[in-house]
From TrEMBL:
GO terms for cellular component: cytoplasmic stress granule; nucleolus. The keyword DNA-binding applies. It comes from Oreochromis niloticus. It is found in: Cytoplasm, Stress granule; Nucleus, Nucleolus. The keyword Protein biosynthesis does not apply. Its main location: cytoplasm. Keywords: Cytoplasm, DNA-binding, Endonuclease, Hydrolase, Magnesium, Metal-binding, Nuclease, Nucleus, RNA-binding. Belongs to the endonuclease V family. It comes from the Eukaryota. It holds the Pfam family Endonuclease_5. This is Endonuclease V.
Length: 247
């Protein structure tokens, strides 16, 4: 059977995103989320799909699980995979989610006691063209709380690298300071967070699933030793080791 034309595929994907978007929970759903020190949270996960330079078909799907609050690695899973969906801006999840979901399912089957209670995704959640980025997609399909943390600003829904945005970044004085990312509709889609005193460059946090934005921002800051939250930093470290580089 031949692949559907690109236009038909996009319509199919948009419809799927709209359907799954209705299932996103933008509020806290777990007891530990309401605790000032996240009491009851013991395991945090991080996921990413990394590519070999010059190869857009083969990739490495990676999952790490860290203890909380000491952020020590409890579990690592790296699997080479062959991608079947094309890369199309705004539809990254259809290319990456199946493999990240498989990694979580392998862990649940083989070592269920290490399943993370929340997953940090190297990408966006509600801060997305149609308010359904990779962190939302993975969250809904896995049923786990997910947080999207992006290193670069997605210029979408009226949010852009304006002078005002740059001045807001400059006003972030210390780790934990943040400001809202407000779309053209007036909705807060995420927050820019100065995640560490050591880094003046923010990360962009948005809800994936089963967590409120304020809790997602607070948890991201709590998991940062440096600019990037430790679960994602550990995944990126695995990627660079595989490429013979240093973080």
């Amino acid at each position: 059977m031949s692949a559907p034309p690109a236009e038909d595929l996009l319509q199919q994907w948009e419809s799927e995103q709209a359907r799954l978007r209705q299932q996103v929970l933008e509020e806290d759903t777990e007891d530990w989320q309401g605790s000032p020190d996240f009491s009851g949270l013991e395991r945090v996960g991080g996921v990413d799909l990394s590519f070999i330079k010059g190869d857009d078909v083969n990739a490495c799907a990676q999952l790490v699980v860290l203890s909380y609050p000491d952020l020590q690695v409890l579990y690592e899973d790296s699997q080479m995979v062959t991608l079947t969906a094309p890369y199309i801006a705004g539809f990254l999840a259809f290319r990456e989610t199946p493999f990240l979901l498989e990694a979580l399912q392998r862990l649940k089957k083989n070592q269920p006691t290490l399943l993370p209670q929340v997953v940090f995704v190297d990408g966006n959640g509600l801060f997305h063209y149609r308010e359904f980025g990779l962190a939302c997609h993975l969250g809904v399909l896995s049923g786990l709380p997910c947080v999207g943390v992006a290193k670069n600003l997605l210029q979408v829904q009226g949010v852009n690298k304006s002078e005002e945005h740059q001045s807001q970044i400059a006003a972030l004085q210390r780790g934990g300071d943040s400001f809202p990312l407000i779309g053209a509709s007036g909705k807060v889609l995420g927050k820019a967070l100065r995640s560490s005193d050591k880094s003046s460059k923010p990360v962009y946090v948005s809800v994936g699933h089963k967590i409120s934005l304020d809790t997602a921002v607070r948890l991201t800051h709590a998991c940062c030793r440096y600019r990037v939250p430790e679960p994602i930093r550990q995944v990126l470290a695995c990627r660079l080791v595989a490429k013979g580089q240093k973080l």
